[in-house]
Amino acid sequence: MAFSVVVLAAGKGTRMKSSLPKVLHPIGGKPMVQHIIDTVNKLGATNIHLVYGHGREQLQNKLSHNDLSWCLQDKQLGTGHAVQQAAPYIQDNEDVLILVGDAPLIKESTLQQLIAVKKDADLALLTVELDDPTGMGRIIRQGSQVTAIVEHKDASEQQHQIKETNTGMMIMGGKDLKRWLSALNNNNAQGEFYLTDVIEMAAKEGKSIHASQPSSAIEVEGINNRVQLASIERAYQDEQAKALMMRGVSLLDPARFDLRGELEIGQDITIDVNVIVEGKVKIGSNTTIGANCILIDCEIAENAVIHANCIIEQAKVGEHCSVGPYARLRPGTVMKEKSRVGNFVEMKKTTLGKGSKANHLSYLGDTEVGEGANIGAGTITCNYDGVNKFKTIIGDGAFIGSNSALVAPANIGANATVGAGSVVTKEVNDNELAIARAKQRNVSNWQRPTKK
């Protein structure tokens, strides 16, 4: 049977103490509600109705790439009132899966199971057993049949002893849902329209109400404050780390690894502690990533070694390359096979040719380096005149002496040599030696200054 999804995402999240709507706070580098949308898309829903309210412009800007039906809840008057905003878009002959926007770890398999349970019932809800159910709505049963959900503040002392709780997630027929929504009232301790009241309405009509449970309580744990946000982040990262290790990645400390995007991997990869992966990253086989590295939207080929404390962003590292420690590869950088950069080297929009090396304390910006070249310590390609950027070309086999400044636009020929300490402003042809520095002068009998 066709089904649509309603995602409740209108709340302010007051306890987050933030100007950012609660559902936009990130888990694994992605808004928590985006995790839910991505999971729902795998289910093949006909429509996704997002109920939004607080921070509406921020939500629409951040989630604009999704195919969503936007349902505005101008005033937040409860979960039942929230779903009422989607009612005009719900078809009588479809099932409607209702999800909360602050439980980002819900699994596709759990929702598939809930949908399957609904096939043998009029209504199915997702419940969870908690050791401490304080604050949660309690599931009321008569035998195996669910008859009601009582909110914590409205529950009796006896009902407070119930461990089975409501997750806020359920599925039912569209026609039934709209009828029950129209009959809701706010005669309760909170003065709100509770979606949970539809359970009691369904029971009174003699509808069959079945429950399903997730494989783990963490799947349905909601986020209301920064402590819970951090807890869910750790649970998410633990899940990602375990998945990577099962695929053959060696994480030297899984608790100190963060995946905030997508990681494509080869075999026999070793990742040291405190590595952060953001965006789309590809790491080839037999590659080692040292401690404290940040990898952002980059590609690292097979047999590369990334030493500790490197940042690689929108760059490509070739096979058998060596990077760092303490190197920074900025957007547009390409390292060809067997090239290497060492400590405190920064490259931006630069190609370092096969077998070339810049081992120490250098900046290469807007530069094309050929094969087998050596860039000495302290070399700078001066690519910016304060207004425009210019390119430097360094030929195959060139040797750039230490502490040299190549003022772009510059062209250093194949097998050319630049003497240490030079400031090069003119073209250097193939096989030439360029020396551009003041002539040394030694002063005999020099008297050092003395204190007066």
Write the layout of secondary structure elements.
Elements: E1 3-9, E2 26-27, E3 30-31, H1 32-43, E4 48-52, H2 56-62, E5 69-72, H3 79-84, E6 95-100, H4 108-118, E7 123-129, E8 138-142, E9 145-150, H5 157-160, E10 164-173, H6 174-182, H7 197-204, E11 209-212, H8 226-246, E12 250-251, E13 257-265, E14 270-271, E15 275-283, E16 288-289, E17 294-296, E18 299-300, E19 305-306, E20 311-313, E21 316-317, E22 322-323, E23 328-329, E24 334-335, E25 340-343, E26 346-348, E27 351-352, E28 357-360, E29 363-365, E30 367-369, E31 374-375, E32 380-382, E33 392-394, E34 399-400, E35 405-407, E36 410-412, E37 417-418, E38 423-424, E39 433-434
Parallel strand pairs: 1-4, 1-6, 4-5, 7-11, 12-14, 13-15, 14-16, 15-17, 15-18, 16-19, 17-20, 18-21, 19-22, 20-23, 21-24, 22-25, 23-26, 24-27, 25-28, 26-29, 27-30, 28-31, 30-33, 31-34, 32-35, 33-36, 34-37, 35-38, 37-39
Antiparallel strand pairs: 2-3, 6-10, 7-10, 8-9
Helix pairs in contact: 6-7
Radius of gyration: 31 Å
Provide a count of the helices: 8
Report the average pLDDT across residues: 95
- Sequence stretches where pLDDT stays below 50 over 5 or more residues: none
Distance between the termini: 97 Å
CATH fold-level label of the largest domain: Spore Coat Polysaccharide Biosynthesis Protein SpsA, Chain A
